[in-house]
Specification:
Pfam families: Histone_HNS (PF00816)
Number of helices: 4
Structural class: mainly alpha
Strand order of the largest sheet: 1-2
Order of helices and strands: HHHEEH
Distance between the termini: 95 Å
Largest sheet: 2 strands, antiparallel
GO molecular function: DNA binding
Number of strands: 2
Protein name: H-NS histone family protein
InterPro entries: H-NS_C_dom, H-NS_C_dom_sf
Strand content: under 5%
Organism: Bradyrhizobium hipponense
Helix content: 40-55%
Length: about 130
């Protein structure tokens, strides 16, 4: 419709046109919302049988998915709070940094395995 056509219409005609447009827009918004929710549901589904590999290819990265690494077991623990541990990787935790600055050695915080003796490296002759 041209602007001149709209200006020529009286109030009642314009109001009816407004209501009709509002109804059509509401229907189209509802349909669009349903389609977007369907797409979102598809994207949120867990990967099944290699979809992760095809998803990486579809994304255009060209790289295979990252391999799964084994869980890293903790090697050091805080004697004051034994649940606080550190695997020896990454940044040292605050409790360990504070202890090392106060004169302790890293070896003092090592978690001993069952077969290890506490003085295994003492004297440098372990063989």
């Amino acid at each position: 419709m041209r602007r001149q056509d709209l200006e020529a219409m009286d109030f009642e005609e314009l109001w009816l046109l407004h209501e009709e447009l509002t109804k059509i827009l509401a229907e189209k918004i509802t349909i669009e919302k349903r389609e977007l929710e369907k797409r979102l549901a598809q994207l949120n589904q867990p990967d099944q049988f290699g979809e992760a590999e095809s998803g990486a290819a579809k994304a255009g990265t060209g790289q295979p998915p990252r391999r799964k690494y084994p869980k890293v077991v903790p090697k050091y623990f805080n004697p004051l709070h034994p649940t606080e541990t550190w695997s020896g990787r990454g940044k040292q935790p605050r409790w360990l940094v504070a202890a090392l600055q106060s004169g302790h050695t890293l070896e003092e915080f090592r978690i001993r395995e069952n077969g290890e003796s506490s003085d295994r490296n003492a004297g440098g002759q372990g063989h």
